[in-house]
Amino acid sequence: MMKKLLSLLCLSLSIGAFAQNTVTVQVDNGNQPHSGVAVFLYENPMARTTGPITNTDLFTQVEYTSGNGIASFTTSSDTAFYGTFDCSGNFYQGFHIFAPASQAMDTLVYTTCVPNDCSAIIRTGQTATGLGIEATALRDINWTNLPGSDHRFDVNGTSYQGTTSSANSSSVMVPNSALPASGPVTIFYTRTDSLCSAVWDSLWYNGGGSGLSCNASFFVDSVNTAAFQGQLILQENSTTSSGSIVSYVWDMGDGNLYNTQYPIHTYAATAASYNICLTITAVDGADTCRSTFCLPVQFDSTGAPVLKNGFTVNVIDPATFSLDDPLLESISLYPNPSKGEARLTWDATLNVDQVSVFTINGQQMLNLTPNNNEVMISSLPTGVYMVRIQTENAVTSQRLIVE
Question: Which residues form the PKD domain (predicted)?
Answer without folding.
Answer: 238-271
